[in-house]
């Protein structure tokens, strides 16, 4: 996927990509996690899709997801690839949202030894000069 600079200097996805799921990126700017839901069969998707994989319709609607859920599984990466080496050890998890599909994400503000399947997590939105607006999940206090 090619990227272009926005007026703020942040990397933004190229125009053909934005036309399909642009609302997702707009939602991130407003601290909202958006997915799509099939109007025909009710299947919810994250990341958002323009077509339903279950019933093959394009009758999709945008929905706001809660951004809260429970950790389903995780891995602690102690040997990151070179492009991620500046991050050191990091944790990737799959969060089962309370109101929707699973979300793969980075976990922050938690030590690897304290991560437990089933722990409650919530979304945190972050502005990154390298990646634009992004999100991670943090433990619920």
Summarize this structure briefly.
This protein is mainly beta and 141 residues long.
Oligomer kind: single chain
Radius of gyration: 16 Å
Q: Give the class-level CATH name of the largest domain.
A: Mainly Beta
Category from helices, strands and their pairing? mainly beta
Q: What is the number of beta strands?
A: 10
Distance between the termini: 37 Å
Query: CATH architecture of the largest domain, please?
Result: Beta Barrel
> What is the CATH third-level topology name of the largest domain?
OB fold (Dihydrolipoamide Acetyltransferase, E2P)
Name the beta content range.
35-45%
Largest sheet: 5 strands, antiparallel
Mean pLDDT: 87
Helix content: 10-25%
- How many separate domains make up the residues? 2
Instruction: Estimate the global geometry from the Cα principal axes.
Output: globular
Taking strands numbered 1, 2, ... along the chain, how are they ordered across the largest sheet? 8-7-6-9-10
Poorly predicted spans: 1-9
Q: Order of SSEs, N→C?
A: EEHEEEEEEEE
DSSP helical segment count? 1
Q: Helices, strands, pairings?
A:
Blueprint: E1 3-5, E2 11-13, H1 15-29, E3 33-38, E4 44-45, E5 60-65, E6 68-77, E7 90-97, E8 102-107, E9 120-128, E10 132-139
Antiparallel strand pairs: 1-2, 3-4, 3-5, 6-7, 6-9, 7-8, 9-10
Tell me what you see in this structure.
The protein is 11% helix and 43% strand. It has 141 residues and is mainly beta. The chain folds into two domains: 1-65, no CATH class; 66-141, OB fold (Dihydrolipoamide Acetyltransferase, E2P) (Beta Barrel). It has a five-stranded antiparallel sheet, with helices on one face. β3 and β4 (44-45) form a beta hairpin.
């Amino acid at each position: 996927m090619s990227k272009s600079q926005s007026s703020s200097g942040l990397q933004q996805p190229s125009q053909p990509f934005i036309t399909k799921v642009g609302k997702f990126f707009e939602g991130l700017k407003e601290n909202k996690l958006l997915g799509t839901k099939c109007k025909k069969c009710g299947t919810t998707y994250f990341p958002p899709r323009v077509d339903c994989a279950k019933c093959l319709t394009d009758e999709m609607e945008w929905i706001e997801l809660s951004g809260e859920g429970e950790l389903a599984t995780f891995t602690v990466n102690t040997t990151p690839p070179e492009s991620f080496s500046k991050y050191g050890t990091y944790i990737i998890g799959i969060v089962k949202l309370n109101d929707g599909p699973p979300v793969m994400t980075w976990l922050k503000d938690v030590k690897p030894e304290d991560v437990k399947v089933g722990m409650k997590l919530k979304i945190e939105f972050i502005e990154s000069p390298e990646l634009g607006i992004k999100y991670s999940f943090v433990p619920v206090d």
